Each structure stands twice: as C-alpha cells, then as structure tokens.
Amino acid sequence: MAYNNSRNPLRALQKKLGSKILIRLKDGTEYKGSLKEYDNFMNVILSDASEYIKKEETNKFKEIFVRGNNVLFIIPDGE
Amino acid sequence: MAYNNSRNPLRALQKKLGSKILIRLKDGTEYKGSLKEYDNFMNVILSDASEYIKKEETNKFKEIFVRGNNVLFIIPDGE
Amino acid sequence: MAYNNSRNPLRALQKKLGSKILIRLKDGTEYKGSLKEYDNFMNVILSDASEYIKKEETNKFKEIFVRGNNVLFIIPDGE
Amino acid sequence: MAYNNSRNPLRALQKKLGSKILIRLKDGTEYKGSLKEYDNFMNVILSDASEYIKKEETNKFKEIFVRGNNVLFIIPDGE
Amino acid sequence: MAYNNSRNPLRALQKKLGSKILIRLKDGTEYKGSLKEYDNFMNVILSDASEYIKKEETNKFKEIFVRGNNVLFIIPDGE
Amino acid sequence: MAYNNSRNPLRALQKKLGSKILIRLKDGTEYKGSLKEYDNFMNVILSDASEYIKKEETNKFKEIFVRGNNVLFIIPDGE
Amino acid sequence: MAYNNSRNPLRALQKKLGSKILIRLKDGTEYKGSLKEYDNFMNVILSDASEYIKKEETNKFKEIFVRGNNVLFIIPDGE
C-alpha cells in the first residue's frame, strides 16, 4: 500500500464518482445517491438521491448538496 | 467527468444563480428562493424567499442572507 | 450577473451600510438596527438597535456589537 | 462612511478603551466593566467588572479575562 | 524515544495500516475494521467493518469512511 | 494606553506568571492555582491547583493542564 | 521563568513522555496511562491505559489514541 494513498482517504472517493454511496449525517438522517462531486471538506453532491429517517424513505431529490461538517460517515458502496 | 469538477461541488452552484433553490438549516427550518450570491463557506443570499417550518410557510423575505455554518443541505432544484 | 458578485455575498452588505437590517441569532433572538460596520466573519455593529424575543421588543441599544458566529441569518431590508 | 471602517467592527472597540462596556455570553451571563484590552478573537479584559445573572449582580472582579468564543454580543456603551 | 515520534501520534497509525482497529465516535457508536487509509484530520477508511451500539453489532460494511471530527478515540489494537 | 497592549489581552497573562489565578470552564467547574505556563489558545498549566464545583473544593492537583477551548474566563487575581 | 517556556504549555508534556498521566474528556470519562506520543492539538497516545467512568474502572487498553478536541484537561502526574 503506497504511503500517499494511506494518507488521503478523500482521494478514495475519486473512484466512487458516478457510483451509489450512502451518507449518514450526525442527526441520523441518511442520503443514498450517485456521487457527483465532492471536496476536501466532504461537501458532497448526490444525484438521484433518497432521504431515509430511521430506515424509512422520506424524500427524493434529483440533486442534493450536503455540507461536509454535518457528515458522520460515508459508505462508499451504498447498495 | 472532469477531475476539477468532481473536486468542487461549490462551483456547481454557479449554474444555479438566478434559479430557485431550497436550503435546509441544521434546526430544520427551510428557505426557498432565488439564488443571488454565495461563497465558499456556503454563505448564501436568496431573493424572494419563503421560510418553512415543518413544511408550513412561516415568513417571506425580499432578500435573506444565510450564514453558511448553519446549512445542512441545499437542493439546487428547489421547485 | 458578474462572477465576482456571485461569489461574495458579504460584499452585498456594503450597500446596506446605514440602512435598517434584521439579524436573527441561532438562539432565536432578533436585533433590528442600522448597519454601521461588519466584517468577513459577520461580526456586525448595529446602531439604534432593538432586541426582539418571540417578536416582543425586549431591549434597546444605542449600539450593539454582535459576534458573527452566533448569526443565523440577516435580512438586509429590516423594515 | 469610509470603506475601511465599515469592514472592521473590531477597530470600533479601540475608541472604547477605558470606557464601560457590557458583554453578554452565550449562556446569558453578563459582565459590565471598563474595557482594558481586546484582540481580534474578541478576547476581552475588563477591569472593575460586575457579573450579572438574570440582571442580578452575582460577583465582582478587579479584573476578568473573557475568552472571545463565548461572547454573544458587546454593548459598547455599558452604562 | 525520538522527539519527532513523540510529537506525531498520527504517524503511529501508519504502522497499523491493514490491521484491525476500533474507533469510538463521540455519540458512543463504535466501528471495528481494517485500517485502510487515514489523514491528519483523523478521517479514516475501514474495510470489513462492523458497527457496535452498546456493544451489540448493529451493522456490517465492506468499507466505511468516518469523518475525523466525530472521532472520540481510536484503539489501534482492535482485537 | 499603548495600542499594542490594547490588542493583546493574552500578553497581560505574562505578568501573572507565578501568581494565583482562577479559571472557570464552560461547564462551571473552576480551577484555582499558580499560573505556570500558557499559550495563545489559552491552554494553561496551573500548579498547586484546586478544583471547585459549585464553590465546593472537589479535588487537588500538583499540576493541571487545561485545554484552552474549554475556558470561559480567567480571573487573573485568583485570591 | 523563561519566556519561551511560559508560552508553550504543550512543551511541558515532553518531560512526561513515558510517565503516567490522566486525561479527562469533556464527557467526564477519564483515561490513565503512560504518555507515549502527543501533538499540538493534544492528540495523545497512552499505553497500558485504563478507562474510568465516575471513578470506576470500566476498561483497559494496551494502547489508546485520544483525539485532542475531546480533552478537557490533563493531569501530568497521573498517579
């Protein structure tokens, strides 16, 4: 495993562009959608996204821009 | 998809200038209005904005300046 | 709409100097007064300001200096 | 009004050195005293200061050093 | 003990790449998995991870990307 | 009063080295002790320190290192 | 007392490397162990550490990496 890789988890998201990911926010809400864009603060744009509260789908968005400081974790393989 | 794009979600807002967007704050309040200005901290100015608490319209503002650190997410297509 | 403008919402406050604005803090308290000074952190000085808690006027200040990190939003047209 | 002034509310405190000011913290506690020193983070030293909780005087300090990140607002004219 | 080592606890994670670690978040949730990547903000990617709430396994993830600012502590030896 | 002094409240702590000071944390706990070291983040080391919860002495420490971001205020004259 | 020392409380931890220290987190949990590494953000690695909740030992760790922003204070002499 290369040293540079091991020090840059955000770069790992690069490979997920266009794939389904799941984002859980600090308040427990989850968003599942296709990763369209992201930056180093974990600001993320998902397309064709669904919102889940307590595992129930509560909303659908063609596109959603999540502010990074609210993110708890990202599951790169959101299926 | 170009690398630069994928690392700059904020630039995606550039295309939404003048369009209706929806902002949800951390406290659940939502603002819908026309995106007039924004910056890298997600400070946003909306014009002709409506405020929604629990999906009920509670206020109208000719212009509102939302401080970015309160933002949970932005739905670029706020219709 | 010029690109520079669209990336600098704080500059929009420049035009409001001397005008009445309304500031809502994160705790819900509101301050209405004449915008005297501000900076990039949204530190703001209002003159001839009134404080409102649940829409009731609770105090008056000849001058008040609000620390920016407490600001939820600013209504530039505070009338 | 000069542009530089309008972008530097903290400089406005310079004129208040030696005058009585009032500081309200985020938890509602208030401190009234003579402004002795301050910096750009709103760290403030008051001399001959009184502490107020719910408008009742609860303490007196010859000198108090308040950490800026706790400050809600400052009333420059604390009389 | 070398001075450089003693000033860089994050470098200690370098030796744990590929090993099982445990991460406890501020909200008490725990994640156990193989350390794949990390950075200076303690953003961490675990592979083959399990989620534990009150010591009960509640979920499994092939890969999870935890945002560093949520981390309470890391047990490098997660077995 | 010199301009430099008025912009550097932290420098005022320099004169208190070796003197008794009182630190109140955001959670109300207080520490009284001899100021041994400090830095610009208000990280402080006290020696021969006592801990007070609701004005009751609850602990004694030969030395305590308080992280600055927890500090509410410092009373330089802690007697 | 040298000026440089008085402005660098973190350097004081250098002398404690290998000694027992106690860390109290903001949530009240305490960790006692041998100081192995630390950095300027108060990220700390303890070895042979015990966890205490309300003074009861609740866990033991061969090694624990505590994220600095959770730290309330450190007692350098943890015995």
Summarize the structure.
By secondary structure, chain A is mainly beta. Chain A is built from two helices and five strands; from the N terminus they run H-H-E-E-E-E-E. Chain A has a five-stranded antiparallel β-sheet with strand order 4-3-2-1-5, with no helix packed on it.
Tell me about this structure:
Seven copies of one chain form a homoheptamer. The first copy, chain A, has 79 residues and is mainly β. Chain A has a single domain, classed as SH3 type barrels, CATH 2.30.30.100. Chain A contains two helices and five strands. Chain A has a five-stranded antiparallel sheet, with no helix packed on it. The N terminus of chain A is likely disordered.
List the helices and strands and how they pair.
Seven copies of one chain form a homoheptamer.
Chain A: H1 3-6, H2 11-14, E1 20-25, E2 30-38, E3 44-53, E4 56-66, E5 71-75
